[in-house]
Amino acid sequence: xxxxxxxDRMMNERDIDGLIAALQDADEFARSDAALALGAxxxxxxxxxxxxxxxxxxxxxxxxxAEIAYRWVVGRMEEVQKAxx
Length: 85
What we know:
The chain is mainly α. It has one domain: Leucine-rich Repeat Variant (Alpha Horseshoe). The protein has helices at about 5-10, 15-20, 30-40, 45-55, 60-85. The model has no long low-confidence stretch (mean pLDDT about 95).
């Protein structure tokens, strides 16, 4: 993967499945970028993969990115839930 460019493209296209697949990339920076892109989008489909990544990725920085992204998605879901009441 041409890491940064591909992740940016997938984020701009809101390619959730592509970004989730990028969480498995061999490059820890690509995984971190993909995690943060998923967090910025805030789609709940990313919660499971981000949860797994934040506890099992071999890279501490990628785990941290996944933790941040996970919290962003949860926060977005809480905002949507409050707005729909």
